[in-house]
Amino acid sequence: MPSNNGIIFKAIPDGYPVIGEHIELVTREIDIENFPLADGDILVKNQYLSLDPYMRGRMRNPQIKSYVKSYEIGKALEGHVPKSYFIGLLGMPGFTAYIGLNKIGKPKEGETIFISAASGAVGQVVGQIAKIKGLRVIGSAGSDSKIKYLDELNFDGAFNYKTRNIDEELTKLCPNGIDIYFDNVGGETLDIVLSHLNDNARVVACGMISRYNDNNPHVFKNLMYIVTKRILIQGFIVLDHYQEVDSFQKEMREWLKQDKIKYKEDIVEGIQNAPEAFLNLLTGKNFGKVIVKIC
Amino acid sequence: MPSNNGIIFKAIPDGYPVIGEHIELVTREIDIENFPLADGDILVKNQYLSLDPYMRGRMRNPQIKSYVKSYEIGKALEGHVPKSYFIGLLGMPGFTAYIGLNKIGKPKEGETIFISAASGAVGQVVGQIAKIKGLRVIGSAGSDSKIKYLDELNFDGAFNYKTRNIDEELTKLCPNGIDIYFDNVGGETLDIVLSHLNDNARVVACGMISRYNDNNPHVFKNLMYIVTKRILIQGFIVLDHYQEVDSFQKEMREWLKQDKIKYKEDIVEGIQNAPEAFLNLLTGKNFGKVIVKIC
Ligand SMILES: NC(=O)c1ccc[n+]([C@@H]2O[C@H](COP(=O)([O-])OP(=O)(O)OC[C@H]3O[C@@H](n4cnc5c(N)ncnc54)[C@H](OP(=O)(O)O)[C@@H]3O)[C@@H](O)[C@H]2O)c1
Ligand SMILES: NC(=O)c1ccc[n+]([C@@H]2O[C@H](COP(=O)([O-])OP(=O)(O)OC[C@H]3O[C@@H](n4cnc5c(N)ncnc54)[C@H](OP(=O)(O)O)[C@@H]3O)[C@@H](O)[C@H]2O)c1
């Protein structure tokens, strides 16, 4: 009988998940001949598995309600499973970039956008769409090779927030202030950005990955700017917008054809490496959209 | 020669302003006969003086830019100076309530609104407009007599946040969650409210008075709800909206005629009592719109 591997959710982590303690690879056998299929069911063989930060949010106490249900202890982690680009650029993360930027950011030619986690699955798409729309695009990321990639994407400026002073870099790279902040990280970066925003700026609250595994909240100093600068901060969940996925994919394919968009994937071979790849995603060791190639 | 009293700005306060150190009453003489008036100038005699929380924001280092210019050391504090209701219900605070609620809150019949500093110059108007529009209206304020007033205004629920547990009260009074939070105070209250908001809730960021004199920022624990509950937080400054003041005053006068709106004023006699009245406003000892009756 063929074997079937799954990453099992074992216990709710408090900080970063620990492999073996909170998540673990389990191999089981699957009897394909006698697999119980109801009428209309299909048994699929996965080729690619997507790892995304939101999966950390599902490793929670099931009593805490949120936009996706929590993982069940003892069951496999669920994820999205289509062909490579369909889990990245043309899939959920690319669509997240498109919806967040257009619906909340409302970009206008000549404006300045700043993007955190700018080389990631979502961030790299945000920056390239913003360039297409004629914005000045500044990004931050956590390694020099990521910054080099942002330069290749023709970002107008980029800096490594781990080795540079965020406040100083923003002062230098955004001399006319920031009109849109596409926030993937929350915490300290968000706080510093508030002081660089222009009047009527928009903050696209896409994610707060710096907080997912850290139980010591950041102490915000600049929230009063929300009032005095008439700032809009708005969260969104991409799942709410799937009625627009067709027009998104159409526009994105056009940009791809015209060579206006690149997409960096971080492909991990073998499901046995998925737990570590997930940890790498949560600690910034990934570079681009994390995809597990299963077969 | 008649004397002319003014409250002079003496030094930039760090926490609460201290009378004598940061602000002080100064009496000068004014030579009405020979007062230097340019063509078209009018010399006015003030009857009422408005004291408002934003005046604390003007007592800052002039190098910090904001929506109104900072006060100049050695000069008198400027304020708004028309007839009683024109500095309250029909003036700046009433208009603030109207604009913030309508433009950002976007109230819909049957929704639940929560208002902090609900008995104040702005808050009492927000609550009454929301009642007219068919919302469930809950408020918090800092004394039992203020809560009694909110009951008189037919609020659906109100609590004294100084003697009650905010989280427990909101659980009890907003069993279906909160759709609109009209935020006058920021800080801890805002943080707790985030956990009670419904999906797609709106936070009207009107002011953060709990922070104006306090240099120890609140440690926010619930900001991630902005993403997961698709929350909108938006700041505004009423000055930006004066093109709509006529339609506001028309609607408000109609409500007044129909006895749908009451307005509590906290009238202080004599400009010599203005510094203390301003301190009272910043510490919550006022009750309703603070107005100084000058003559
Ligand atoms: N709202 C939605 O519907 C929606 C949908 C998809 C994704 N998201 C959110 O969007 C954000 C980006 O997701 P993604 O899929 O594009 O992931 P990603 O950027 O490909 O990977 C996560 C990146 O976050 C950065 N990071 C990790 N830990 C961090 C920390 N402690 N502080 C600061 N940065 C840290 C790392 O980049 P650096 O090396 O540059 O730090 C890491 O590579 C996440 O917050 C995610 O939850 C939201
Ligand atoms: N965005 C704009 O354009 C605009 C325009 C006008 C006013 N505002 C803002 O709206 C808010 C209300 O202004 P208002 O004129 O209506 O003042 P108000 O409510 O009449 O007076 C201020 C009230 O704030 C409360 N307060 C004072 N210190 C506090 C603290 N440390 N923590 C919590 N609450 C505190 C007190 O009420 P309790 O006893 O109930 O605590 C006090 O009575 C202020 O934040 C102000 O800056 C904004």
Automatic annotation (TrEMBL), chains A, B:
<dbReference type="Pfam" id="PF16884">
    <property type="entry name" value="ADH_N_2"/>
</dbReference>
<dbReference type="InterPro" id="IPR013149">
    <property type="entry name" value="ADH-like_C"/>
</dbReference>
<dbReference type="GO" id="GO:0016628">
    <property type="term" value="F:oxidoreductase activity, acting on the CH-CH group of donors, NAD or NADP as acceptor"/>
</dbReference>
<dbReference type="Pfam" id="PF00107">
    <property type="entry name" value="ADH_zinc_N"/>
</dbReference>
<dbReference type="InterPro" id="IPR011032">
    <property type="entry name" value="GroES-like_sf"/>
</dbReference>
<dbReference type="InterPro" id="IPR045010">
    <property type="entry name" value="MDR_fam"/>
</dbReference>
<dbReference type="InterPro" id="IPR036291">
    <property type="entry name" value="NAD(P)-bd_dom_sf"/>
</dbReference>
<feature type="domain" description="Enoyl reductase (ER)">
    <location>
        <begin position="20"/>
        <end position="292"/>
    </location>
</feature>
<dbReference type="InterPro" id="IPR020843">
    <property type="entry name" value="ER"/>
</dbReference>
<protein>
    <submittedName>
        <fullName>6578_t:CDS:1</fullName>
    </submittedName>
</protein>
<dbReference type="InterPro" id="IPR041694">
    <property type="entry name" value="ADH_N_2"/>
</dbReference>
<keyword id="KW-0560">Oxidoreductase</keyword>
